[in-house]
Specification:
The protein has about 525 residues and is of the alpha/beta class. Helix content is about 40%, strand content about 15%. The protein has a 7-stranded parallel sheet with strand order 5-6-4-7-8-3-9, sandwiched between helices. Helix 14 links the parallel strand 14 and strand 15. The longest helix is centred in the last third of the chain and has 29 residues. The N and C termini lie far apart (about 85 Å).
Length: about 525
């Protein structure tokens, strides 16, 4: 058994400029994650297919068996044959349904026939999802002994080093965030590893990538990629919007068929095994309600925290665990809308002795990956995250999701609560509804066709530690103030606004001058 395990624990050099060593718990995490996506409750039916019947080659089927994946999920059965036939595909299925393998397997199957660099480009909206996709491609590729080279191109890392390593490695698969890939291509650093031979382009979390935020980057990328009739384009998402569905109605380019739409279980936006609740909370009193909820969760499974825990995010301040006690908390993700609030909440909980890590865009990339790894490995039971952690991240054992802020978009709510209750598991989602959020939560209920149940928390017990919690919040606020947290970003925003205003004024001035007699 050890020999088989060692086959997966290779030391891989990726283009983020660091060596990533896959620890033993990483293998078991990805085995659980991939397997959890493929435990089809209908797998005992006589008409259930296997991957060989879908057309996947034997080495890949063998690699899947090594991680106990034998039966394809509905989204995989629906998409894999169409992709192998050369069709463009739009795939929609609920979170945790195995969408990654639905496009990864046919790409790797075709790559066996033509092992060329730049064969497929996988675009993702967040760095954390990119890391997960990269590791899942490697897990299957290494298991098939195909010599797969997969590159990870993310922001927050040395771009020169990334360009050099891409030129040396000439990877078959490039997993990237659009912005950094555009930076590398536009800088002229792609002469040795260009995308002229790209056969597959995948937009994972397509609803997010097709938003105006990514429009300029995508327009540039598609302008230099091979034309549509020379490549396959695959879109996958858990929230299939009408705009994406209408892509099937567009007139295809000559020599190209319109994309196929494959959607599974899209009638209900949230899984039946998810218990969705809300609690009415004054906007200025959410902290004590959160602390009480973490210590008295509705779920039963908890993660014990040991006193020797010393590497919890901020190394200068370990959690204050009282002598001899081993507290336990459910594996929980708390979603917050703003980076500063996420960091403030994380430091406040640390002051109170509640071990946690944070995940937001104002952390260095290395810290973001480290924090996420700590949470995945169950070394820290609580993750305080902005919406960068709401899409695609697969941590099968998450028990509880807390919406500290009710999201403004119902799609974001679906992605947040989709981090728990994955593939038939039971999970809880609790939303804090303040006096400002009533209309938002009602709109979400209308979209998901479900009324949330009220979770009543005992006010007297909630407010019992109010003074301690307020003191911890003050300490956390002072730390952020002393560190000038977020000031550089605010200055950059102001500069951008001033520059944009200057361009507009010049445009108006030139327009008025041309209108003068």
């Amino acid at each position: 058994m050890r020999a088989r395990q060692d086959f997966f624990f290779v030391r891989v050099r990726v283009v983020c400029g660091r060596y990533i060593h896959f620890e033993y718990f990483d293998f078991f995490f990805f085995a659980r994650a991939l397997t959890s996506c493929n435990k089809d409750p209908m797998s005992d039916q006589a008409d259930a297919k296997n991957f060989s019947a879908l057309g996947i080659c034997t080495p890949l089927v063998r690699a899947l068996r090594m991680v106990a994946i034998n039966v394809p999920t509905p989204i995989q059965s629906a998409c894999i044959p169409a992709i192998l036939e050369g069709r463009d595909v739009i795939g929609g299925a609920e979170t945790g349904s195995g969408k990654t393998l639905a496009f990864a397997l046919p790409i790797l199957h075709n790559l066996f026939k033509d092992m060329v660099g730049g064969y497929a480009v996988i675009l993702t909206p967040t760095r954390e999802l990119g890391v997960q996709l990269h590791e899942q491609f490697l897990a299957v590729g290494q298991g098939s002994r195909m010599g797969l080279k997969c590159a990870l191109v993310l922001g927050g890392m040395d771009m020169t080093r990334q360009a050099n390593e891409l030129g040396e490695q000439r990877p078959h698969i490039i997993v990237a965030t659009p912005g950094r890939l555009v930076d590398l291509l536009s800088s002229g650093a792609a002469q040795e590893w260009g995308l002229e031979r790209c056969k597959f382009v995948v937009l994972d979390e397509a609803d997010r990538l097709l938003s105006p935020t990514f429009a300029p980057a995508l327009a540039y990328l598609f302008s230099i990629l091979p034309p549509a009739h020379m490549r396959q384009t695959l879109l996958f998402t858990a929230t299939l919007t009408p705009e994406i569905e209408r892509l099937t109605e567009k007139t295809p380019e000559p020599g190209k068929l319109p994309p196929l739409l494959r959607k599974i279980d899209m009638d209900t936006s949230t899984p039946d095994s998810l218990i969705q609740q809300y609690t009415l909370v004054p906007s200025h009193m959410r902290e004590p309600y959160l602390v009480y909820l973490l210590n008295n969760p509705p779920c039963e499974n908890k993660v014990k925290v040991h006193a020797e825990l010393s590497d919890v995010y901020r190394t200068h301040k370990a959690p204050k665990i009282k002598g001899g006690e081993e507290p336990s908390f459910p594996l929980t993700i708390v979603f917050v809308s703003r980076c500063k609030n996420a960091e403030l909440l994380s430091r406040m909980l640390t002051e109170l002795g509640i071990p946690n890590v944070s995940l937001h865009s104002m952390l260095p990339q290395f810290t973001r990956l480290h924090n996420l790894q700590m949470f995945r490995a169950r070394r820290v039971p609580i993750l305080i995250s902005t919406d960068v952690g709401s899409r695609g991240l697969d941590v099968p054992d998450v028990e509880l999701v807390v919406n500290w802020d009710v999201p403004a978009a119902w799609e974001d709510y679906i992605h947040r609560v989709g981090r728990t209750a994955r593939k038939g598991r039971r999970g809880w989602a609790v939303s804090f509804v303040t006096e400002h959020d009533v209309e938002l939560i009602q709109a979400i209920e209308a979209k998901i066709h479900k009324r949330l149940d009220e979770l009543e928390l005992p006010e007297a017990q909630v407010l019992d530690r109010l003074s301690h919690i307020s003191a911890a919040k003050r300490v956390a606020s002072m730390e952020l103030h002393d560190e000038k947290f977020g000031e550089q970003r605010e200055r950059n925003k102001r500069k951008a606004k001033i520059a944009q205003g200057g361009k507009r004024s010049k445009h108006k001035l030139s327009a008025s001058s041309t209108n003068e007699p």
